[in-house]
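Reader question, answered in our methods column.
A reader sent in the components of a multi-part assembly and asked whether the whole thing could be modeled at once rather than chain by chain. We filled in our standard form and ran it. Here is what they sent:
COMPLEX SIZE: two components
ENTRIES:
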Amino acid sequence: MGKFIFKISLFVTLLMGMVSGLEYIARITPNSYSYKNEYMLKNCDSINTLVLGSSHSFYGINPLYLENNSFNLANVSQDLKFDLYLLNRNIEKCKELKTVIIPISYFSLYETPLDKGNEKFRVKFYEHYMDYNDTQLNSIEKMEIYNPTILQEKVGNWFKNLIGINADYGVDSLGWATGYSVSKIDDEIEINVSKTILRHTPNEDYINENIRYLNKIAELCYTNNIRLYFITTPTLQEYYNNIDAKRWLFTTSTVNDICLKYDASYYNYLKDERFDKSDFFDADHLCHKGAEKFSKILKSDIFE
Amino acid sequence: MLFNSIEFLIFLPIVFILYWFVFRQLRIQNLLIVIASYMFYGWWNKEFLILIASTSLLSYISGIVIEGFEGKRCWQKFFSATNIIINLAILGYFKYCNFFGESFANLLNSFGIKADWVTLDIILPVGISFYTFQALSYSIDVYRGKIKATKDIVAFFAYISFFPQLVAGPIERATNLLPQILKRRTFDYGLAVDGCRQILWGFFKKMVIADNCAVAVDSIWNNYQNESGFTLLIGGVLFAFQIYGDFSGYSDIAIGSAKLFGITLKQNFNFPYFSRNTAEFWRRWHISLTTWFKDYLYIPLGGSRCSKKRVILNTITIFVLSGIWHGANWTFLVWGIYNAILFIPLLLTKSNRKYIDMVANGRYLPSFKESINMIITFILAVFGWIIFRSASISEAIDYISIIFSKSFFYFELPYGKSVMIGIIFMLIVEWFNRDKAHGLEFTDNGILKYSAVRWFIYYAIIIATILFMCINQSFIYFQF
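And here is the structure of the entire assembly that came back:
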């Protein structure tokens, strides 16, 4: 028994060392969150335009085609609470900030908060790389090794760095996501659309909370003399024909009310006919071509 | 509590320490097994603990009563039958009530008799089929005089509820497990180390192979009407490995965990995908269930020592029942019939016991004929799994029709590419260990005699599991 306990203790100790090593590698390997944080720390005082929001703006708005000194601070599944957090965190330091762009999606008001939904594992990235410390995750959930897919990517990138190959962190120098290069729209679009809409099951429980965050964001921009633009990114016909019209009407009228109250603007491109299937990666995300087109349209509508 | 959860990783060492270091008296150790097992089960649903306790108590009492009527065969038969009927009634209520109610109503409707079945809100208790069969085997064995009825109620409750195998088997026989529980156990270093290896291999199969296959399989099945025939065949192949990784993985973790407590459970899988015909497959797949049906149903029905017609009927009965055992759905029944159709020709031509030993015994590689036989047997099993996995018979027919359509020649592999590497790795490891009880059973010869090499393998498997696992997937067989 003594031999077994000794060997198993030694084995577990070494294993803990390896797991800690893996966790350390995952945390020190640069990623889109750490890159964006670092960029903001270094360049905050020169940024004029900041893009916040979820994957719709992360993939859909390329700051290269906006005004000079624009930066995309959006992240996958980033909800209004985290938009507000990032804005609050950077607003004081960004002395030249004139414009903030926030996407309003079909699910924006009906979304379960990031820290309570299926993607709550993403909260740890804000904690690890963006100094967020209000997380309700337990210590296991906070570990990077708890998400094998992301861990694989990070260990892969760490290894590439080690052997001198440039790793791809999924974002370009201005924070725009590079992952959705070409359209993957096919004949099965109807099915994919229903899947996409199901991915964001509307939850009525958080409407008030989400409206409160929207108001806070608008108020923050208003008091700091920053022009706030709410925008809805284009979607495919198959997508916008399948959304709940009543909910969408409520969302747009709520956003319009907030705009009136805080002197903000709302541009709705949901059904913009200038976009065709070749502009979309999937039903509600733009691909590279679509992002370039959309960013140029935004520039002309907002800045010119 | 799931094996693949943090809770279990904490629970198991605590029970181990209490078992070997704190409670060293046999009765107290058995009581600890009962308490730990009820905690393990209650983690999922406390209310159903009463069901396990009732099943255990009923079988315990019936065992004593049956033995008490020694010499009075009629009374023994009566109490044994009563116990069987009550246990099967409980199982039937939770598992089949809605299914038979709805089917009966549909049947009446088809004859023009208006009938409605209001679906009852019945939650299926996890593992009910497993522990009910275990309880049944005890009372039948007492009735047959194969085992003495135990008076030790704690030991008996430990036998029914022993946590490693409580919710998904192996279905233990009282003749194997009860004597081990009644006997004082001493720590066996070799057994415990082997148990740890088996647990590790089980986790790899479950968390890397099965759970990654599950993601691809779900994607294919959710959209099967729009996939090519080739993709659907791959979906069937991936499901074959999903269910194998899931269930044999669970069995490995269960058997390995039991070894840590000085208890040896029965082998439940013996590398079934290396079988050369369907009969061999069924001797290697879910062994504890197939032997249960063989011993308690097939042989009492006359087995194969009766007329050809009767043999065929017995075989169909066994396969149909083992199909329905998996759940209340026509797909399981058809799956049973499908396997009976594959099995009966082998039985009639006396080829069912043609392959008793392991394939390529004493050789590294199989012969050409053996390879072909293994591939054919595997493909036949895959079509069975397609029926098993489908939500309805019409879905299974649609799915299989697409495989045999022109679209089969549209070779694309949109899902499951990366998990294929894991499957190949698993098959290689299991091939070279196919004469052993599990994939990581090592003998102390060759390069494996060096503990550094063995530890390197353990760590490599653990790191691969951490990197490629899927999180929070339940076990398929829990629902049975």
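What stands out: Chain B has two domains: 6-184, 190-276+355-479. The interface with chain A takes residues 6, 20, 187, 189, 192-193, 196, 223, 226, 455, 458-459, 462-463, 466-471 of chain B (CB under 8 Å).
Send us your own complexes using the same form.
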